[in-house]
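Good morning C.,

I know you're traveling, so I'll keep this short. The sequence:
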Amino acid sequence: MEQRQICPNRQLYHETQTSQPASGRTALLSQAASIEDRFLLGLAPADGTPLSKLLTTLQPMLTLSGNMYHLLFPCQLTTSLTQSLSLYDRLSCALTVAQVGSVQRLCNHYAARLAPLTCHDPSRESNHRLTQLTEFSRQLASQPGLIDRRVLQRLEAVGLSHADIVTLSQICGFISYQTRVVAGLQALMSIPVHRIPGLLVPTDADSRMLCHRDWQPWLPPLPSPVSDSQREALNACQTLPFPASALQLLASEASLLSAWGQLMQQLNYCTAETDIATLAAAVSARINGCALGFHQMPTGKLRDALVQSVDQALTVAGKSERAIMVFAAQLIRSPSQLTINHIHLLTECGFSQQHILHLILSIAAAGWNNRLMQSLGETSCLECS
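The tokens, ready to paste straight into the viewer:
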């Protein structure tokens, strides 16, 4: 994957952004855009292999992930005053998040879908709106702990409705999830990793962000009465470990809440190894700065050390715990650089392919949920325990 680092802006520009013509690029873009599998994007192990058989058992999860993709990025989309994000807006934000993760398979796909579309309003106001969408997406993808109420106010100022903001948060969360599932599978399949010169790895969140609890939304709750579809979606999500106020807010887009809830329930069913999933989710929450996710980890010496830093926690963790944490930290911070060597750290501790695949799913799902909670509300400050 070819990248250039432009020093004044310290931003990475992918080959998908270049304006220079290239032989065969049109064909490659067309192929990436029309691929049938819209979640794994054609990534599939050879038939009959153990990994292929494992993926077959996860077909319900893959189907639900594909359903979420089609809800977020349909072939045709009609906008309205309350749902103003066009397909161009959505795919532009998706490409931004994909580029933060730097997994080329995703960058190619979202660039290919975006390429034939145009922004129909070339006004200064429209450009400013797209800039705000892009900046929000980049920040939520790379450093979700920096999102605050003022960021949402800037989105509101350029005309986004509350339903738009919820949809945008779901887009960023979904692409972050998709990035890490694809990166994890590529490592399991021993697909070579291309080193990216100058790749910027976001810094971990400030540990003081974990001294918070009692999540409160930044946007107002649903107006009463709620619709039948919203009520059904809320009822179906009651078993998920999320504050009722968060689910109420997500219900502003009932179809997305329903699809997300079904997928989270399926992922919880798939990742039945509770200790592995809990530790992976805690590492994700620590790096991203999501207090709500972090405090689901049981109290103890390991959690106390993890509050300080992942490196500090590694000094008190057992061998298996260290392997999980090193793997999780790499997939969270720099998914495109996850390699077969990170897989070997886990297999040396006795983890099977099934365990590793479930670990990947736990990390990916935790990152999605961290971003939803961090982009739509905040926690009140209490003393760390």
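Safe travels,
E.
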